[in-house]
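Hi R.,

Here's the chain you asked about this morning:
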Amino acid sequence: MDMHTGTPGTPNRREPRSGAMNLLVFLALVPFDVLVGGYAWLAVGMEGWAASHGGQRPVLPVAEVAMSGGLLAAAGLAVCWGRYRGAAVIQFALTAVLMVWLLSAYG
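And the predicted structure, written out as tokens:
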């Protein structure tokens, strides 16, 4: 027996959340973004600093950058699954910008 209250023949769709809720979710994610992005920035900066003081070429810390990007992308996927599409788009955009910025230091 089907107990949904929609009209027969129409699928039940999950509607996206409002713009204000998307903004609140994004603002709630900002501390997480700062911590994870700051860790990646610190790892890249420390590698560059150590290489410059050792007279070597800096090597990209791939594990740290990949882990940071993966955590931020996972947060974006979780937010998208929760129907906060606007917050997810911003999360993915910030992740992409951070990764491009970190990788640009290594050519």
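Residues 29-104 form one domain.

Let me know if you need anything else.
M.
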